[in-house]
């Protein structure tokens, strides 16, 4: 069975500092990995995905994520956090041939001015 | 394009009542799915469909029914509401294309907040 772990319920960072939101996964085949963001009272919005190729994936709003196969991780990063980045972030995974994504429990990012 | 739309935005039900949550998309996406979101548990898949006439169960299907008579619509039915079904429900859709469906980005609706008393 596939699974996703987001070990931190909340991440606090000061504006202008780099941020990392952690995600580890478990699948039986090659993984498809996604990051979504949810702002209050809104649906989820796509940030970026890894399907194959370069391990460093660049996405929307200056976010990027690094796929690490040996550590089965897909951490979300941004060099300089903005207060407007404060939101709930979800990592999701699937693998070849499956028909559904599995989401992590979410990490709340709080960026302080 | 309106994208993925959901109605109603908010609903209060009494235990035992039934209702249908509506979901529609105008992007000609073949794949559609329903999730529920509960605090601390992320999103859990209820049912999904890979095309008109084809549906399958997800992680938490009990108490819910779906059908897919058209590409555009994917309603979720609560047969007999229970307090445990109090949640926020999200519908999502994605393009299937010629690649593996799960490579595609999913587009989410704004959600339906359901309270069962």
Structural overview:
The complex is a heterodimer of chains A (113) and B (117). In chain A, strand 7 (56-58) and strand 8 (64-68) form a beta hairpin. The mean pLDDT of chain A is 91. In chain A, the strands form three sheets. In chain A, strands 2, 5, 6, 10, 11 and 12 form a six-stranded mixed sheet that branches. Chain A has a four-stranded antiparallel sheet with strand order 3-9-8-7, with no helix packed on it. In chain A, strands 1-4 form a two-stranded antiparallel sheet. Chain A has no helices and twelve strands. Chain A is mainly β and 113 residues long. In chain B, strand 5 and strand 6 form a beta hairpin. Chain B is mainly beta and 117 residues long. Chain B has strands at 4-7, 10-13, 19-25, 31-38, 42-51, 54-57, 64-66, 76-78, 87-94, 107-108, 112-116. Chain B is globular. Classes of the chains: A mainly beta (113), B mainly beta (117). The A-B interface holds A 6, 9, 32, 34, 36, 41-46, 49, 51, 90, 94-106 and B 4, 33, 35, 40-45, 48, 50, 56, 58-59, 90, 92, 100-103, 105-111.
Short description:
The complex is a heterodimer of chains A (113) and B (117). Chain A is mostly beta strands.
- Tell me what portion of residues of chain B adopts beta-strand conformation: over 45%
Instruction: State Rg of chain A.
Output: 13 Å
Number of helices of chain B: 0
Report the count of strand segments of chain A.
Answer: 12
Biggest β-sheet of chain B: count, sense, barrel?
Answer: 7 strands, mixed
The H-and-E topology of chain A, N to C, reads as EEEEEEEEEEEE
Distance between the termini of chain B: 36 Å
Helix amount of chain B, in percent? under 10%
Separation, N- and C-terminal Cα atoms of chain A:
41 Å
| Assembly level | heterodimer
Overall shape of chain A:
globular
Query: Can you write the helix and strand succession of chain B as a string?
Result: EEEEEEEEEEE
Global morphology of chain B: globular
Return residue spans of chain B where pLDDT drops below 50 for at least 5 consecutive residues: none
Mean pLDDT of chain B: 91
